[in-house]
Design goal:
Largest sheet: 5 strands, mixed
Strand order of the largest sheet: 3-2-1-4-5
Radius of gyration: 31 Å
Number of strands: 5
Oligomer: single chain
Number of domains: 2
Helix content: 40-55%
Structural class: alpha/beta
Shape: elongated
Length: about 140
């Protein structure tokens, strides 16, 4: 009887161990796959406009409303300086006087993203349906 009891104890101890080898093998295969694939991935970048330097010579006008944001976050609405507080009311006037429902935005690459977001919010609340962001004027 003693031998049986001893044999069942060993059997229970072996059942409590978890074999992690297959899990570790799968993780290593996934890691190696990522290491091989990572250098092959291309990360695209977008070239932004330079914020109005020689802007009138570089593009043709397709919209009645144009907003230029310079590198110091200065906002120009149709070549006139305007503040963010005045922008929404000025855009409401523009949408009433124009049949087009889009804005062209020339945002300098050094200007803050918060300025873009404020302009986008003002355009949406003014009733504009489309905001075209000019990334790099054609030369």
């Amino acid at each position: 009887m003693r031998r049986r009891r001893f044999a069942t104890q060993i059997q229970f101890e072996d059942d409590n161990n978890v074999n992690l080898t297959p899990l570790i093998d799968v993780l290593f295969v996934i890691l190696v796959a990522f290491i091989i694939i990572a250098p092959m991935l291309d990360v695209d970048s977008v070239d932004l406009s330079d914020g109005g330097a020689n802007l009138k010579n570089e593009f043709h006008q397709t919209s009645d409303v144009q907003i230029v944001v310079k590198s110091n976050n200065q906002i120009l609405l149709n070549k006139k300086e305007i503040s963010l507080a005045e922008l929404e009311s000025a855009l409401q006037e523009c949408i009433q006087s124009s049949d087009q429902n889009k804005i062209e935005l020339f945002h300098d690459q050094n200007a803050s993203f918060g300025t873009y977001q404020s302009i986008k919010n003002a355009a949406e609340s003014s009733g504009y349906k489309e905001l075209q962001i000019v990334l790099k004027p054609s030369k």
